[in-house]
Design brief:
This protein is an alpha+beta fold and 384 residues long. It has twelve helices and seven strands. Helices cover 47% and strands 15% of the residues. It is globular and about 80 Å long.
Length: 384
């Protein structure tokens, strides 16, 4: 199945590239593109088949994201967010899960941050439910989604400490703010959404603790380090963009004759070196990333990942992001004025890579936390 999805991703890349101007202009994926990607399965690659997914390995999901990003990073971003947002399907009641999966090609989106509250309150007919309030930023793909989830603190009145979980909304339950005006990843539609005194039946509030008691607790997916799992496609997307930039520079250099020169750009030794260095950096970062993913995944077959594996996964992902950005910048510089126009894939990839690098999952504080563990055995490593 993973080979089939990789082949599909490669087939999709030219179409995504060709429609990139449209995607950026809309500041979200065109619905026909999102629907077609969903029909091909890109939004359900991660979770087990019993939850409506394909059950692919994290390595396969990252690889798919990498290939899609060679065409358009926003499309790759939305599909991986859709896939990871389905992790909490394991905590849904069977009847609610069936409702969510009525459409087998359902498009989902969600924000893991617990930026909302869910307070127990009966419905008009006495049905168990919750009043939900909250405001969730960075809700990538929400404009296309049939179900949108947001992290909540659940106050059921049963104890002093609220539980953590996810509220599952229909688009009509929330207000989706039109506030995604950015330099890069414009087409990801990563807008803010808000719930104001929204009553939801209890079945639509998924308590994270439920997974530990579910049949899915033993699934390797639910043994993977959560933050490592959520972050890894970001690094893969960065490497996909970097690879696309290297390929684009090689193609441009074959025919471009710089002003004042009689030789093509591709005949210049300086470009030869720049391309070789860029290619080596991408390959090295990619090898480290996938080796770290595979090591963590292998460990989950037998139990939870240890600190070293969690640290390695987060640092390899952050390194992939930083390397991808650096290579994308160098390839933009290598072709001079050709890259400055919006129509240039090089310029678009640069904007997208710069925006992706600002995500807190791959920002430098990750390296700070990872480094701290070498010196402080009592350091709080929950962020890894």
């Amino acid at each position: 199945m993973s080979d089939k999805m990789l082949t599909l991703a490669a087939e999709w890349a030219p179409t995504l590239r060709d429609r990139s101007a449209e995607i950026d202009s809309l500041r979200q994926l065109p619905q026909d593109l999102a629907d077609a990607l969903a029909a091909d399965g890109f939004y359900r690659t991660l979770v087990p088949p019993a939850l409506g997914g394909m059950g692919l390995s994290p390595s396969a999901v990252a690889n798919i994201s990498e290939v899609l990003a060679m065409g358009n990073a926003s499309a790759a971003w939305c599909t991986f967010i859709g896939s990871t947002s389905q992790i909490m399907f394991a905590a849904l009641e069977p009847t609610q899960l069936a409702e969510v999966l009525e459409n087998p090609d359902v498009i989902t989106a969600g924000v893991f941050a617990h930026s909302g509250t869910a307070t127990a309150a009966p419905g008009p007919d006495g049905t168990d439910g919750y009043i939900v309030n909250g405001r969730w930023a960075w809700a990538s793909g929400s404009h296309n989604a049939e179900w949108i989830s947001g992290g909540v603190q659940i106050d059921s009145g049963d104890g002093p400490q609220p539980a953590l979980g996810r509220a599952f909304f229909r688009p009509g339950d929330i207000e989706l703010h039109d506030d995604w005006f950015t330099s890069g990843l414009r087409g990801s539609g990563s807008s803010t959404f808000e719930a104001r005194d929204v009553w939801l039946p209890a079945s639509r509030i998924a308590d994270e603790r439920t997974i530990l008691k579910s049949p899915y607790a033993a699934e390797p997916l639910y043994r993977m380090p959560l933050f490592g799992l959520l972050a890894l496609p970001i690094g893969a997307i960065a490497l996909g963009m970097a690879r696309a930039c290297v390929d684009e520079v090689i193609e441009i250099a074959k025919s471009k004759v710089p002003q004042g020169s009689r030789r093509t750009l591709g005949q210049r030794p300086a470009l030869h070196s720049a391309v070789a260095v860029a290619d080596t950096e991408v390959r090295a970062a990619r090898n480290l990333l996938y080796a770290s993913i595979d090591a963590a995944w292998e460990r989950t077959q037998h139990g939870l990942s240890d600190l070293e594996l969690r640290r390695d996964l987060r640092t390899a992902t952050t390194h992939a992001m930083l390397t991808g950005l650096r290579v994308t910048q160098s390839m933009n510089s290598a072709v001079g004025g050709t890259a400055i126009f919006e129509a240039s894939p090089l310029q678009r990839h640069l904007r997208d890579a710069q925006t992706a690098s600002a995500h807190f999952m791959v920002a430098m504080p990750v390296m700070e936390l990872a480094g701290r563990t070498y010196f402080d055995p009592e350091a709080d490593t929950s962020g890894l």
